[in-house]
């Protein structure tokens, strides 16, 4: 028995090992700037950002804002000759999202294009000015008592990015008045845009963030069971938002059957390849999904009726071991195939295999209760992942009986390797079609269409499955 000192030492080594380990999330959803731009643009539309710009109170701000010195004299002069002053048209141009200098934040630039006009008794036409400016904000990860979260901060609009010009020239007097209006707008407009538009941008971002959280929480249905994801922590990597996720598996009654939190199980993130989004799912989560679709079961096959050629060849193989046993095989002979455990998914260099432990029994007739023999088989199949629309599909091919063991025998001891070939053929003809039938429904990935895509493609790393958009 180990001494208390030895036990304490082992616990200390284990704690040190775990503390130094880099834990990986169950899955990672990576969103490119293009996706963020599109989602944020739509949210700005939903919040009527353009209408907010059109209703900027330019004249009222000039009337109520106290001004001193030369600027105050200019404002007083303008107010004598202007009947109204307002934005006549406004546009939010293509958003730009770029990484900050240290790649720990994302810089959001919202370009604005506006035309403002004012009416003056000095001329019958409306005097119009073209105004271009950029509102800028920062997307960053902030930590609070609730944990890390994505926030939008430092929303600003500066004079440096403001450009104002007359759309057409008038008389000297009117042009002089327009110049004075523009000189007042240079300090006034950025402050006004910041006060009126920044809250809208922040609200749009909050809505977008909630939409993304709802997106990752949509269940992935696996028959009557399903997988659910939720946010573990956000991160900003290079120019993308990365949502690290945990997962749980639930049965048909909604009871949690397994949790997938951070783990020492590795998760290799794919190299960024300009994809709008990528969903990288850890190997053990994929394995659990396969196990849910293809649980252990027992399969009974009347071999002579279903696969008569295989029944004939099985009889010939058994005859090599025992002629008496082979002669007892009747047309009602039964092969019973039992999968003992859930399939084990193995990933290596972009290839996938599924390993299984299988028990195979041969009964001479449907009436007997004791099999001729029982074989334990360590089998493996090629696993082919592919996609159909927004569904992730899996097909098992070319099952191999890697190792075969004689568990018990009623016809005497024999070398089970003598039945290796016929056993593999029976599994390929009876078990594989049954398993592929259960896997045929696939796994829907609802976030694909929610992100605006119709189909997905998939690839494998050494320890994960990666889902990305497919293009026709």
Automatic annotation (TrEMBL):
User: Per UniProt, what is one Pfam family of this protein?
Assistant: LBP_BPI_CETP
Q: Enumerate the UniProt keywords alphabetically.
A: Signal
Determine if Signal is one of this entry's keywords.
yes
Among CDD domains, the record links this protein to: BPI1
Its ancestry begins with: Eukaryota, Metazoa, Chordata, Craniata, Vertebrata
**Leader peptide range in chain numbering:** 1-21
Q: Which InterPro entries match?
A: Bactericidal_perm-incr_a/b_dom, Bpifb1, Lipid-bd_serum_glycop_C, Lipid-bd_serum_glycop_N
Q: What is this protein called?
A: BPI fold-containing family B member 1
Q: Which parts of the sequence belong to the Lipid-binding serum glycoprotein N-terminal domain?
A: 36-254
């Amino acid at each position: 028995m180990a001494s208390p000192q030895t036990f304490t030492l082992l616990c200390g080594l284990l704690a040190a090992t775990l503390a130094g380990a880099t834990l990986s999330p169950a899955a990672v959803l990576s969103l490119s700037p293009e996706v963020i731009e599109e989602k944020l643009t739509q949210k700005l539309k939903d919040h009527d950002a353009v209408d907010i710009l059109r209703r900027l109170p330019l004249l009222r701000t000039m009337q109520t804002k106290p001004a001193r010195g030369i600027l105050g004299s200019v404002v007083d002069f303008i107010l004598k000759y202007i009947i109204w002053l307002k934005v006549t048209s406004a546009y939010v141009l293509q958003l730009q999202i770029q990484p900050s200098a240290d790649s720990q934040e994302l810089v959001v630039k919202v370009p604005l294009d506006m035309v403002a006009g004012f009416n003056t008794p000095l001329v019958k036409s409306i005097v119009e000015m073209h105004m271009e400016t950029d509102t800028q904000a920062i997307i960053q990860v902030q930590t609070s008592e609730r944990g890390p979260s994505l926030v939008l901060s430092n929303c600003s609009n500066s004079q440096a990015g403001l450009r104002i010009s007359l759309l057409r020239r008038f008389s000297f007097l009117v042009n002089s008045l327009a110049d004075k209006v523009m000189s007042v707008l240079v300090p006034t407009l950025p402050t006004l845009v910041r006060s009126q538009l920044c809250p809208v941008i922040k609200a749009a971002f909050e809505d977008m963030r909630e939409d993304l959280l709802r997106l990752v929480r949509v269940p992935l249905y696996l028959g009557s069971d399903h997988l659910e994801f939720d946010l573990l922590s956000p991160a900003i990597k290079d120019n993308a938002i990365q949502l690290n996720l945990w997962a749980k598996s639930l049965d048909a009654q909604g009871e949690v059957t397994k949790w997938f939190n951070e783990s020492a199980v590795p998760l290799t993130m794919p190299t960024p390849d300009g994809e709008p989004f990528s969903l990288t799912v850890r190997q053990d989560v994929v394995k659990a999904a396969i196990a849910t679709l293809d649980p252990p079961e027992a399969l009974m096959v009347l071999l002579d009726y279903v696969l008569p050629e295989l029944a004939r060849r099985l009889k010939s193989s058994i005859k090599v071991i025992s002629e008496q046993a082979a002669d007892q095989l009747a047309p009602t002979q039964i092969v019973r195939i039992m999968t003992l455990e859930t399939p084990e998914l193995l990933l290596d260099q972009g290839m996938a295999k599924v390993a299984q432990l299988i028990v195979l029994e041969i009964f001479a007739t449907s009436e007997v209760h004791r099999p001729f023999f029982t074989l334990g088989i360590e089998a493996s199949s090629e696993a082919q992942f592919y996609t159909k629309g927004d569904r992730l599909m899996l097909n098992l091919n070319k099952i191999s009986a890697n190792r075969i063991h004689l568990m018990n025998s009623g016809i005497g001891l024999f070398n089970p390797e003598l039945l290796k070939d016929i056993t593999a053929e029976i599994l390929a003809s009876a078990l594989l079609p049954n398993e592929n039938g259960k896997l045929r429904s696939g796994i829907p990935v609802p976030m694909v269409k929610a992100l605006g895509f119709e189909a997905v493609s998939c690839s494998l790393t050494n320890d994960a499955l990666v889902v990305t958009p497919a293009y026709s």
